[in-house]
UniProtKB/TrEMBL annotation, chains A, B:
It catalyses: L-glutamate 5-semialdehyde + phosphate + NADP(+) = L-glutamyl 5-phosphate + NADPH + H(+). Its main location: cytoplasm. Catalyzes the NADPH-dependent reduction of L-glutamate 5-phosphate into L-glutamate 5-semialdehyde and phosphate. The product spontaneously undergoes cyclization to form 1-pyrroline-5-carboxylate. Belongs to the gamma-glutamyl phosphate reductase family. It is found in: Cytoplasm. Its EC number is 1.2.1.41. It is an enzyme of class 1 (oxidoreductase). GO terms for molecular function: glutamate-5-semialdehyde dehydrogenase activity. The lineage of its organism: Bacteria, Pseudomonadati, Pseudomonadota, Betaproteobacteria, Burkholderiales. InterPro entries: Ald_DH/histidinol_DH, Ald_DH_C, Ald_DH_N, Aldehyde_DH_dom, G-glutamylP_reductase_CS, Glu-5-SA_DH, GPR_dom. Pathway: Amino-acid biosynthesis; L-proline biosynthesis; L-glutamate 5-semialdehyde from L-glutamate: step 2/2. CDD domains: ALDH_F18-19_ProA-GPR. It comes from Advenella mandrilli. PROSITE patterns: PROA. The gene is proA. This is Gamma-glutamyl phosphate reductase.
Length: 420, 420
């Protein structure tokens, strides 16, 4: 059995590598035509998609899947419309492939530039949400990459049905159907093979929980563009506009608890803690947010539970907030250096000196001034759409849009120059 | 024994991580002062360096090291001067850290940009040349990274002596001496530990032969910026200026046989093969270059040996050249797609159509028009200096200068905007 899964994945890999040489050269017109046709066929096939999805939902109910997961798994009319809208939006985006940057003329007259080119073959490994099948395939296709999609077994029928729609779009635009392949086995060995086929796969983008990503990080030989924790901080400086600070700190926690940009620890300068903390505590209480504070915090918010060392390192992804009162900016930066996961942090201050120091010294993928951390999102950054948020240091950092799915090659144009 | 090597490497790693937080924030003035002082101390300590180097040379002779390797290992006065000059050149380069790119104002008034920041901690693993100790340390320091250097055992005393000079420079500029650490053990287990300490090391740059790099690729958990083969091609199109083609093809092979940009296979359009090949064959014969050709090639160059399938895949790094006559541009591009290592290729043509098609379709890290492949070099690209040439697809491709040793963070400046 494992043997035949390996063979299947080898075949998929070889087909993807071959398809990537076609899609790398495809015109934007071809790629956009494929995406728009997929959008049309999604809407026309809503009943088919819901029928296939119903099989997954029934299995999920039989397996007593949690209601939240059932909700993510469901392909409602609304979900189908959102996917179609997303496809049309991505079709309309500017194609990065072939654009030149860093163009210069060298002293010997050679023209030099960097040309954007696709990464090649991208593997996407994801969990229950079937819409990832469409969103990820669309971004990879637009940026000229071949894609291998490996969704969760709980969305098996939904993903295959969406894969059929994708193939229709590719064929309609005259592109090879192997440009996007949905892995048609739920055998876990397929993942193990996918993340080690370095000859066929250039990068793996996992979309899922921490356990998935940790396991893949340990076993992969193919490079990952990965998202680990989002333990995000806001520091309210002594020179903050306190009304602004109140609004930002409130929204950063309560906008949506489950997103990676949600604030998990609030740091407050001692000089303004008395003005800030009781008012914030009341607002958080109205949202049923549980507060866990350091000793000083608890002098201002007596109801707060004592925070432990573990709290500073925790991404709650829920209605809990850790709060620490610090003596100065340096202590805030130190706290972040020790406990942050390097995702997104923000300082609230009106002073240039503190803002600049914070933004230069904090080594996270996004560092804000006077903004809530929940802006960490590809749409908000003007990237149009995102395939995820990278916590890597290399290649691409923060929200990853089309450009993060490309690399470059050097192009040099001469007229017979020789080396000296 | 292995236990204590692991402990040593853990200590070095922890110190490098700590030092990286200092050097990340250091001013260009501090970094350049350190580099210039190292240059001065190198020259003042030439006798000390040569004494330490003599110990390595004696060991090498006792171990019957090849003359070419002995040559690479030798720290002559000239080699010491070259290192000092290199340090002063790197000191004078523009510091990429802190510069902003992709700056925009978003519709909601938020200012967004990407700020260049150091990668963090870089491990360099290299073989016999001790000058890498200085060159690599200097580039990593200038770009704000902490560095762990692991040279070959045959250069042990030389590398430690150069490490002492580096420490003097760091101390002179008020920087922690742990910003650059030379690993003081020749135990091979140190390498195994270095390439798996993901908590302390952000990237490994190997400088050495293919065997070293293949072994590291298989065992590393830390990302590598690596250089594999340089199987480079020149294609002489039917619309080439034949005099230009002659000069370029001759220099691309004979400039220096051992460099990765040296041409290893020459592809020639059938329509001009008769005019091009006999003349080139005579010139190559004057340089004692052995020719291996396809059947058609041998009708024009009867002395050429028959080329085998293996020849198309071989990076000779020596006075051997494979030659194939092709029917058209498409066949040349196909040959390159199948056999190239993705390093550097060039087309010789006077026509825009052929030049554009070649440059768009060939998927190598550098693609030239009317230039010899030996331009693949950081100095020639205007990067000032290079730490190596990357054959990776991700992060950095082709010659790697200071910018390749950095990454970016997103910086957003707002005035209290909330998410909608």
């Amino acid at each position: 059995m494992t043997q035949s899964v390996n063979e299947l994945m080898e075949q998929i890999g070889a087909q993807a590598r071959k398809a990537s040489t076609y899609i790398m050269q495809a015109s934007d017109e071809q790629k956009s035509t494929a995406l728009r046709f997929m959008a049309q066929r999604l809407l026309e096939n809503a009943d088919y998609l819901k029928t296939e999805n119903a099989k997954d939902l029934e299995n999920a109910r039989n397996n007593n899947l949690e209601p939240a997961l059932l909700d993510r798994l469901t392909l409602s009319d609304k979900a189908i419309h959102l996917m179609a809208t997303g496809l049309n939006q991505i079709a309309a985006m500017a194609d990065p492939v072939g654009s030149l940057s860093a163009t210069r003329v060298l002293p010997n007259g050679i023209n030099i530039a960097q040309m954007r080119v696709p990464l090649g073959v991208i593997g996407i490994i994801y969990e229950s949400r079937p819409n990832v099948t469409i969103d990820a395939a669309a971004l990879c296709l637009k940026s000229g990459n071949a894609t291998i999609l490996r969704g969760g077994s709980e969305a098996f029928h939904s993903n295959l049905a969406l894969g059929n729609i994708i193939r229709e779009g590719l064929a309609h635009a005259g592109l090879p159907e192997t440009v996007v392949q949905v892995v048609s086995t739920t055998d876990r060995a397929a993942v193990g093979k996918l993340i080690t086929m370095t000859e066929y796969v250039d990068v793996i983008i996992p979309r899922g929980g921490k356990n998935l990503i940790k396991r893949l990080s340990e076993e992969a030989r193919v490079p990952l563009i990965k998202h680990l924790d989002g333990n995000c901080h806001i520091y309210i400086d002594q020179y903050a506009d306190l009304e602004k600070a109140f609004q930002l700190a409130l929204q950063a926690k309560t906008f949506r608890y489950g997103i990676c940009g949600a604030m998990e620890t609030l740091l407050v300068h001692a000089a303004i803690a008395q003005e800030v903390l009781p008012r914030l505590a009341q607002a958080y209480a109205e949202h049923q947010v549980e507060l866990r504070g350091c000793e000083k915090t608890r002098t201002f918010i007596p109801d707060a539970k004592p925070a432990t060392e573990e709290d500073w390192d925790t991404e709650y992804l829920g209605p809990i907030l850790a709060i620490r009162v610090v003596d100065n900016l340096e202590q805030a930066i130190e706290h972040i250096a020790r406990h942050s996961s390097g995702h997104t942090e923000s300082i609230i201050t009106e002073r240039i000196h503190e803002a600049t120091l914070f933004q230069r010294q904090v080594d996270s993928s996004s560092v804000y001034v006077n903004l809530p951390t929940i802006f960490a999102d590809g749409f908000e950054y003007g990237l149009g759409a995102e395939i995820g948020i990278s916590t890597n240091r290399l290649h691409t950092r923060g929200p990853v849009g089309l450009e993060g799915l490309t690399t470059y090659k050097w192009v040099l144009n001469g007229n017979g120059q020789l080396r000296k």
